Amino acid sequence: MSTSTTAVLDTPRGVEEHAATRLKYRSQAVAKPYFIAAIGLFFGQIVFGLIMGLQYVIGDFLFPEIPFNVARMVHTNLLIVWLLFGFMGAGYYLIPEESERELHSPKLAIITFWVFLVAGALTIVGYLSVPYATLAKLTHNEILPTMGREFLEQPTITKVGIVLVALSFLYNLSMTVLSGRKTSVSLVMMLGLWGLAIFFLFSFYNPTNLVLDKYFWWYVVHLWVEGVWELIMGAMLAFVLIKVTGVDREVVEKWLYVIIAMTLISGIIGTGHHYYWIGTPGYWQWWGSIFSAIEPIPFFMMTLFAFNMVNRRRREHPNKAAVLWALGTGVMAFLGAGVWGFLHTLAPVNYLTHGTQLTAAHGHMAFYGAYAMVVITMISYTMPKLRGREANSRGAQKLEMVSFWLMTLAMVAITLFLTAAGYVQVSLQRMGTTPMPFMAAQDQAATYYWLREASGVVFFIGLALYIISFFVKGKTDEAAH
Amino acid sequence: MSASFTKSTARNIFYGGAVFFFLLFLALTFDTTQALPKRDNRVNLTEQVARGKNIWETRNCIGCHTLLGEGAYFAPELGNVYQRRGPEFIKAWIKGQPTGAPGRRQMPQFHLTDGELDDLVAFLKYSSEINTNNWPPNIEG
């Protein structure tokens, strides 16, 4: 395509800039509590991350009050729930605007919000206040045992609640889309969200046969994060890029389709990289290695996409922070999900690295780079509008950008130190003629765990500044240059 | 991307690719389920193993340990702990927790009965006999 990448046209002042409210549709306002809850839970997630990080080096820290398994459950479940809050807020904001009509039922959206928040809070309180076995008994896990599997630790009743919340959310959005304008962005968003709900149903299948249990557990976990969630991510990124760059929708949506096509072409069979060593047939080593080796491509395209659109921008959006988050998402998703995933995805490598700190390194940067950052991108773009302005003041944006760099660089450091710890673990415990026992190898990696914890503190400071940035006042500079 | 490559082409690749590869995935899933009886040690799936798996789950063992390499990386792999330590050691170890050694990682006391300990060990023995393509690389897990 031939359009100049440097020409910056005069800033078109949209009609909305003169309107009393910055929202095109009043019902978009229901997104606000979702985003606030997301940020609050994100804060909680990081607090528990710091506790676990310390337990890696001071093993009896907070024991027996908060054993490691409880802290981890809270850390990972809060992550999932705050991302879901973020996706839902994004859905409630994006779908009316794309559909060019009010949300089907704003009231239902608010009821759903409180149901989800209370159910989520009760679950976390349950994790922290009673032993897990007691929680299982109290919630009658024996009726339909689904608890005690990684990331799916929620009591069965909470899982049912998640399904109901998702159905209410999907009903609300689907009705809005059906009676309004249908765009590729909203279609992809809805496909992703429906996929999220449908694949979650596999969390109710927990056979005694451990291999079948593990096999279909990945139908939730992998087909979420390396499948349908990428559709949601792509749609959110495309939406924000259209808004902040003013690039023609046709161009953005073409990119979106190519990216998500590559995502599913590589990612669905790529599930095979989890089927190397859990009792499944050996041919998965071929399927998994080949297809997951192309999984970085859609993420790389995501990076190109973000930079391309920003370079070809036809307006100077006053919200510089949102543009920075969008670009950051492209880069960090590629590094975390693409590069760090590829690092250990080939079967002969994975034979040595499976279930080590290398997995943790990849998990941290991928979740932050892809999903945490895309939700923050959306929040960064929409929150000023939800608060009645096109963009935040210069001071607030400056602080938000400082928080971007602190959190992002801290996450790079966390990933590098965990990778180093993983290398120590693999070389001492998995290789050589006299392999070390697990704990002996862990002791050898202690320095890296301390450095990881220090990086975690920097991340926490970054997050605190991010939250403070919402309270920084100052004059809004509408046409900042 | 060139202008002759249109949005609807991209959309068709997306839908075609998604459907084709999802069907392929289902076919591979079907083939896997057909191949599993020879690999997943289902002949030894007893009532006791089922009770043991339930204890494994309701104590959230996966929150610290890995099993066949999946789980948390805070404590040792247990897919082959039956071969590494043997049944008596495993039961004595669980009974003896927490060690209380200052500064060391601690495992909670779960107050399991002798019957429950036997169930859990039966589950770990069953797990250790699944054909995992020779993973882990050595006895240390």
Automatic annotation (TrEMBL), chain A:
SUPFAM superfamilies registered for this protein in UniProt: Cytochrome c oxidase subunit I-like (SSF81442)
Record-annotated membrane-spanning stretches: 34-58, 78-96, 108-130, 156-173, 185-205, 217-242, 254-278, 284-310, 322-343, 363-383, 404-428, 448-472
Pfam family, one: COX1
EC number per UniProt: 1.7.2.5
Subcellular location: Cell membrane
Broadest EC class assigned to this enzyme: oxidoreductase
Pathway the protein acts in: Nitrogen metabolism; nitrate reduction (denitrification); dinitrogen from nitrate: step 3/4
Cross-referenced InterPro entries: Cyt_c_oxase-like_su1_dom, Cyt_c_oxase-like_su1_sf, Cyt_C_Oxase_1, Cyt_c_Oxase_su1_BS
Keywords: Cell membrane, Electron transport, Heme, Iron, Membrane, Metal-binding, Oxidoreductase, Respiratory chain, Transmembrane, Transmembrane helix, Transport
The keyword NADP is annotated on this UniProt entry: no
GO molecular-function terms, A-Z: cytochrome-c oxidase activity; heme binding; metal ion binding; nitric oxide reductase activity
Protein's name in the database: Nitric oxide reductase subunit B
Provenance organism: Pseudogulbenkiania subflava DSM 22618
TrEMBL record, chain B:
Gene Ontology molecular-function annotations: electron transfer activity; heme binding; metal ion binding
Top-level taxon: Bacteria
Domain Cytochrome c per the UniProt entry, residue ranges: 47-128
Matches recorded under InterPro entries: Cyt_c-like_dom, Cyt_c-like_dom_sf, Cytochrome_c550/c551-like
Keyword line: Electron transport, Heme, Iron, Metal-binding, Transport
Pfam families noted in UniProt: Cytochrom_C
SUPFAM superfamilies given in the database record: Cytochrome c
PANTHER family: CYTOCHROME C-553-LIKE
The protein's name: Cytochrome c class I
Lineage of the species this protein comes from: Bacteria, Pseudomonadati, Pseudomonadota, Betaproteobacteria, Neisseriales
